[in-house]
Amino acid sequence: MSFSSLLLILAATPAAPPEDLGATWGTLLKERQHYKVVDIPMPPGEVVEAGAFCVMPDGRVAVGTRRGDIFFIDGIDDERPEPTYHRFATGLDEIFGLHISGGALHVTQSCELTRVSDSDGDGRADRYDVISDAWGYQHYHEYAFGSDFDPEGNQFVALGLSASYHSRALYRGWVMKVTPEGESIPWASGARSPGGIGFDEHGALFMIESQGPWNSSCSLKAVSKGAFLGHPISFNWYPFADIGDAPNVPESGTRILTERERVPELVPYAVVFPYVRMGRSITGFRVERTGGAFGPFAGQLFLGDFSLSVVMRATTEEVNGVWQGACYPFREGLATGILNVQFTPEGNLLTGGTNRGWPVRGTAPFALQRIDFTGVTPFEIERVTITPDGFRVRFTQPVDRESAGKIESYTLGTFTHIYHGAYGGPEVDQTKPEVTGVTVSEDGREAVISLKEFTRGHVYEFDLAPIRSADGGELVHRHAYYTVNEIPGR
Amino acid sequence: MRGLGILLLLLPAIAESQERSPVIPGLEGNHGLDSYGQGWVLLEELRCAACHEGVKLMPYGPGKLAAPPGPDLTGLNGRMHRGYLTAFLLDPHGVQPGTRMPHLLEGPHAQQDASDLAIYLELTSGGTPGKTESDPELAASGERLFHEVGCVACHDPQVPAFDGGAVPKLDGSVSLAHVPAKYPLDGLAEFLFAPHVARPAGRMPDFGLNRSEASALAHYLLRDARAPFSSNWGIYPTEQVERGRKRFQELGCAACHANAEHIPPPPKRDASGWNGKGDLHEQGCLSPDAKGVPRFALSEAQRLMIGAAQNRSPGEVDPTAMAKAEVQATLVKLNCIACHTRDDFGGPGAERDPYFHTNQHDLGDHARMPPTMTLAGAKLQPEWLAQVLYDGRSVRNYMHTRMPRFGEENVQRLPTLFAMLDEVEAYPFKEPSQGDEDRAWRDGGRDLMGTTGLACVSCHDFNGKPSLTFRGVDLITTPERIQFDWFARFLIDPEAYRPGIVMPQSWPGGVAAHDGILEGHTETQIQALCRSAPDPKGLAREHNNLDVTDRVLTYRGRSRVAGFRGIAVGYPGGLNYAFDANHGTLAALWKGDFVSVNWQGQGAGDFNPRGRAIQLHRDVAFWRLPDDETPWPAMPVKTEEAPVDPDPTYGRRHGYRFLGYHLDGDDVPTLRYRSGDVLIEDRLEDFFTGSRESRGVPFMRRLTLTTESADRLHFRLFAGDSKRVDEKTIEGGGLRITLPDVPVLERPSEGGTEWILTFDLEPGTTEIVIGYELL
Fold first, then answer.
1. How many angstroms separate the CA atoms of B57 and B272, rounded?
2. Residue B208 touches chain A, beta carbons under 8 Å
3. Cβ–Cβ pairs < 8 A, chains A and B
């Protein structure tokens, strides 16, 4: 038998169900050639379970924690870090959002969005001003995640359901828009258990969702005004929100594609992350804007996973007015469950989290770790985008034209999920799309493949293992997963 | 020349050294190699293949013998004084006893050559020489590092291992006597921080020192340097530079040294003619009287072993034997055996043994000695093994010696070889079925690890939670690190796999010693321990208390006394209160210790008063009472049967908005909220600081109400079993409350009396003071 099947990871709570977290990608030793993991030491005796990060104007990195502290960390980018931690604020309630504006930190904590500032300049916060507390908070599982600012200075707060199944307190399962003036506007319903919220490279707002009822796996969801994000339990708050009537209740046991016809507000999940293969509990994300310091993935989303202690990538594009895109494995082998990530001033990716409460892979109860680009560009699927006939697959390095020019090098499969109220769900309706043609671009960086036909509403799973780089290298990760909600017109 | 004269004056230890032959530390230990094996190691370590084609490979696999790269000369100027370099080039074995650098300069021009080469290298190599003065305080810190992290595995200790002990002088140590004359401080610190930049062969391993540690160690190693000793003048006569460059090329220095000018290595000389020469050890570089060739100052034994190895025909060697030989030679070359045993070789000698330290002495030698490499390929998960070798990953926090890094390219064959060589008999695991058996195993694993089972947590931490006694390896790291076949075999017979380990045998002869868990079935128990498990019994309890010291502490979290938007405030004098920010109500008061906070499980941070809390009603406190008969609006109540909030805008409907709080210089919070258009600033002060005794001392609650227009606001002060004591005082629920001078409505309410104050507010600010004495 395979003993990897016995790698059942130790859980921290008796309440957690026994479960196998699943196999690793098995790519750690290849990944580390390109992206190395550096431990960020913590002060002895201090518990820093990071939930949110923010780069301060002076280059320090602020970290907000589960235990309600905000530390300013200096020296986080040092090759072998010897950071100093300055406790700026304390006594807050589980921080999942940290953003700076006008010299103050906007802190999303379970109870409220709070402006935390230091009015007397002594380096310690002394003002905690409520920006918004326009939501109910009546269960420990009702976490709140705050976004960065949009161009108008608004923030968005994603509110998890009550006990992860219900909506028993006001706007649980909703996304709220909070204006700079503190007005709180119910914005979208149907969230289940968000793990983070923010903007993509195009400035579009997305929320990361966890697997559960009405969500057979984790997904990135596009958030827009009036959107229904898939889980109908929070419809009970429409009477309180000035946003029209509640949508039709979707029918359980169907497909999102079909329910979109019946429920116009239903926004199909933009990027579906195949469960276990691509995370089990995806959390905070950031856009890569390091100007090349972090390697070849400019503009992409980097997302942590709490259960598997990995970081993944995602790309998004808008087709026929609907967001969709792809996700890709990136780096595994982190020490603890990742709750959030942040690009540092020098363009490294800071990760942090804890293993509290659920089964989590890893060796540490909590950790801060940095992922550094070694300067050695990995041979990877950089980005998959859709065309009217198939897909454009961009690579990080020129490909070997022979292997990339063969149709057989592109193994594709598709599936969709049952859209239902049960917890999670299997992959169903599998197909094997026929690749009818492939063209490699002149510079060798792109392959355009055409398909015999598309199946809307399916996740397209790419396995490009046979493709080599021009210098003969194998792909670090052979897989990518593209969610086809819409097919572009010619 | 002047530089050399000064150098020799400064370095009597160097001048007097008798030990001139090359030192390969691994060959001085318990390496287990026969003379042929030693000869092969010497052939490689002395980089014979850098100059010679056809040097015979060790008996492991086809291909050419690799010559590990010599020091990279790029940046040399920053890490070496020119005077030292000149002297070293003239007499490498005298200046740096044991060096692998051959003596190349001889004849009447030797001094000029050395000077030319040094000037050339100084000009072209880059780097800036720095200061040399050592700071005693940093040096003291460096001394501790030097003797703890593992430097003494290859270098001589400088202080006794214990009080009253002697400082051993050991055979095979790599001498450091030359270091004070060679390095500027910054250059040495940089070298120690990243040794493989200058020395990519990895024989000087990288201990993962951070900048502070590398600097401290440099200060220690240069504690006796008589600075300044820099002859790097910055004057580079063109003629000399050109001569130096020419000599660099003529001497073939680039055969071993990468260099800033990218001068390529010279053509190799064919060594195939060596084979079969019985007196090879008398030929060429191996000759004791060599002239016109690089001289390595080899001992006779070294010459003989090299000659014998080169001449030996390995014959047919099976792959396993080849792999075994390669592992053994690699461990010798990198001197892994200074710290580790494997099979019947390796391990530190008696003199170095006492320099291995731990902070967990009761765990025995296994807590201070690096683990054996016997069966490492069967024990460690391949990815973990690679990370240990490549990145120095370790889980033994108690062990002072660090696992260093030797450079990935220098050890990259080891994981494969270990995996090929090391195996244990597969353990008869079976797939758990979902459901009862799965859960039973999981709970069984927890029970076995706990103190009522096999008490694993008596000696092991678990998920960051400390063991109550010894602090052995944290057990949550097991699945990431350990292969379960090995783990199962180890559990059954720990002594067989880790001789001398203090871990008890819990399945003697394969029979479970603890028959009360999982029916005493050995295989099931073993399997259960290879699975996830929640926290076992017997771990130290996490410190969950928030303690107030000299400043007021404000903590937000949900609480049974203050609801989900609770705010707990503790004062140094021992008074504490909790505020329900959802409804704008003082919710609880207590004396003594502040709160405990639950950090376990999925939720975070719910607090509990550590003293007996006086619970007050949590309905909105401020409202506009239409008339004396209207009941005070009660907060919504959820029940198990009706769990949805029946009145989700209760607070807002009654005019309440929480605005936040600010802290004064003592961190006393002023809570801010609104009732309608009235701004309320709510601050509780205790006048009794500096003592935990607060009996009889009241909280003074100062309510500052600000309004732009005249307003009437009602404030429910208290509800419940209570009575008026006098005109200004009421008592109830363990509180004595001093009333402000405002109209008071006293009326019956459920369970007693409620006291409602009326604030008639003029435009501007009104201050109300109420005393709360905890009886």
1. 12
2. yes
3. 197
Q: Read off the tokens for A31.
A: 């990944």
CB contact under 8 A, B599 and A9: no
B743 contacts B558 by C-beta, under 8 angstroms: no
Look at A126 and B387 and tell me if their CB atoms are within 8 Å.
Answer: no
Q: Which CATH architecture describes the domain A381-484?
A: Sandwich (2.60)
Q: How far is B478 from chain A (nearest CA, A)?
A: 8
Q: Which of A12, A128, A140 sits opposite B535 (nearest CB)?
A: A12
B558/A128 touch (CB, cutoff 8 Å), yes or no: no
Confirm or reject CATH 1.10.287 for domain B136-221, answering yes or no. no
Listing from the earlier edge strand, what are the strands of the sheet with B595-598? B545-546, B595-598, B606-609
What digits encode the pLDDT tens for the residues B236-257?
A: 889 999 999 999 999 999 999 9
The Cα of A8 is separated from the nearest Cα of chain B by a number of Å equal to 5
- For chain A, the distance separating the N- and C-terminal CA atoms, rounded to the nearest angstrom, is 51
Strands (E), B560-649: 563-570, 575-580, 585-591, 595-598, 606-609, 614-615, 622-623
Q: Spell out which residues of chain B touch residue A184, defining contact as CB-CB under 8 Å.
A: none
Distance CA A329, CA A340 (A): 16
Topology of domain A30-373, per CATH? Answer: Neuraminidase (2.120.10)
Tokens at residue B85, please? 């370099």
Give the integer Cα–Cα distance in Å for A242 and A234.
15
Q: Which of B211, B379, B618, B645 is the mutation pick for testing A, counting most A CBs within 10 A?
A: B645
- Going B84 to B85 to B91 to B92, the CA torsion angle's sign is positive
The interaxial angle of helices B522-529 and B484-492, nearest 10 deg, is 130
In this prediction, residue B18 has a pLDDT band, given cuts at 50, 70 and 90, of: very low
B460-495 pLDDT per residue, tens: 999 998 998 889 999 999 988 999 999 999 999 999
Comparing CB atoms, the residue among A13, A169, A236 nearest residue B600 is A13
Dihedral angle over CA of B371, B375, B376, B377, nearest 10: 180
Number of neighbours of residue B188 by Cβ within 10 angstroms: 27
How far apart are alpha carbons B577 and B561 in whole angstroms?
A: 10
Chain B nearest-CA distance from A323, in A, is 32
Domain map (residue ranges) of chain B: 2-128+232-311, 136-221, 319-421, 436-529, 545-774
Which carries the bigger pLDDT value, residue A348 or residue B35? A348
Helix pair B211-221, B185-193: axis angle to 10 deg: 130
User: Whose CA is closest to B296, among B281, B314, B311?
Assistant: B281
Chain B residue closest in CA terms to A125: B663
B545-774: CATH topology is: Beta-galactosidase; Chain A, domain 5 (2.70.98)
Distance in angstroms (rounded) separating the CA atoms of residues A340 and A353: 7
Element containing residue B319 per DSSP (H, E): helix B319-333
The domain locations on chain A are 30-373, 381-484
Chain A hits for B662, CB-CB cut-off 8 Å, are 119, 126-129
Largest separation between any pair of C-alpha atoms in chain A: 68
Q: Which residue of A has its CA nearest to B662?
A: A127
A 121-160 → B contacts, CB under 8 A: 125-130, 133, 136-141
Cα B182 off chain centre by: 31
Closest CA to B645 of A188, A140, A137: A137
AA letter at A176 = M
* Contact yes or no for B369/B160 (Cβ under 8 A): no
pLDDT over 80 at A22, yes or no: no
* In contact, B373 and B382? CB cutoff 8 Å: no
A112-162 pLDDT, tens per residue? 999 999 999 999 999 999 999 999 999 999 999 999 999 999 999 999 999
User: Smallest CA–CA separation between A360 and chain B, in Å?
Assistant: 10
